[in-house]
Specification:
The protein is α+β, with helices and mostly antiparallel strands and 251 residues long. The chain has two domains: 2-133, 2-Layer Sandwich (Fructose-1,6-Bisphosphatase, Chain A, domain 1); 142-250, D-Maltodextrin-Binding Protein, domain 2. The N and C termini lie far apart (39 Å). Strand 3 and strand 4 (65-67) form a beta hairpin. The longest helix has 17 residues, at 37-53. An eight-stranded mixed beta sheet has the order 4-3-5-6-7-8-9-10, sandwiched between helices. Strands 12-11-13-15-14 form a five-stranded mixed beta sheet, with helices on both faces. The chain is built from nine helices and 15 strands. Helix 5 (161-170) packs across helix 9 (237-247). The radius of gyration is 17 Å and the shape is globular.
Length: 251
């Protein structure tokens, strides 16, 4: 299934490049989030291949909902994570595929089509970045840490600015290389913390296996390794306690 998930993410991601940096119509969904033909085409293609290969498995996708909801194995899809980046021609968007078994995240794939970067993992099988084993950083001090987020606007609107300010004041560098690309940077040791105040299950399902298998953690703001809490962060084990301590200011 990991091999198949990797194939799906890479192939579907490449399909999105047909619309990248082109004039693409942007629609608004019910929650006012943007969607394009690239999102829909990629998810439709992925769903079709899964239904052919594993007709009894469940599917959860951002654009087309749930299929075979009662199945013990579910494929969780985000065809374009970072649609705003995609729309504005920023190459840091990704295609995400996660697989859960009996509700537990087991497989994760992050593919960045525009930069041709792929990070994959399955529980017990390790994590790889472009075919090579990958590990989180060993940074243990915030004054040496690179902190990532997607944007400050969401952090403020979610009431998390006090906690994030604690981290900002202590870290060496903050950049908004966000969405799932930021989590991939943590998994590959290129950044130390990715702070994500709003996550849907299709945003998070691929992340947990990758971070765990690269020696790090993916936790919600209460410290649970969960993909359905609506928020979360990636880091190494040494810095996780720092992030959770900062969260005390908003609890």
């Amino acid at each position: 299934m990991l091999q198949f998930a990797t194939y799906l993410a890479r192939a579907a991601g490449k399909k999105t490049l047909n619309h990248f940096r082109k004039k693409v119509e942007v629609e608004r969904k019910g929650d006012d989030s943007p969607v394009t033909v690239a999102d829909r085409e990629a998810e439709e293609w992925i769903r079709g291949r899964i239904e052919e290969q594993y007709p009894d498995h469940g599917i959860v996708g951002e654009e087309f909902g749930t299929h075979n909801e009662a199945s013990s194995i579910r494929w969780i899809i985000d065809p374009i994570d970072g649609t705003l980046s995609f729309i504005h021609g920023i190459p840091l968007y990704t295609t995400l595929i996660g697989v859960t078994v009996d509700g537990e995240p087991e497989i994760g794939v992050i593919y960045a089509p525009a930069t041709d970067e792929l990070c994959e993992a399955a529980i017990g099988l390790g994590a790889r970045y472009n075919g090579q084993d990958c590990r989180v950083s060993e940074t243990s001090l915030m004054r040496k840490a690179v902190l990532l987020s997607t944007d400050m606007t969401t952090i403020i609107s979610e009431g998390l600015e006090p906690a994030f300010r604690v981290l900002l004041d202590e870290c060496r560098l903050h950049r908004t290389w966000g969405d799932a690309y930021g989590h991939m940077m943590v998994a590959t040791g290129r950044a130390d913390i990715m702070f994500d105040p709003v996550l849907n299950i299709w945003d998070a399902a691929a992340l947990l296996p990758i971070l765990q298998e690269s020696g790090g953690v993916f936790l919600d703001f209460a410290g649970h390794a969960a993909i359905d809490s609506g928020h979360g962060f990636s880091t190494n084990e040494k810095l996780a306690t720092v992030v959770l301590s900062a969260m005390d200011s908003v609890r």
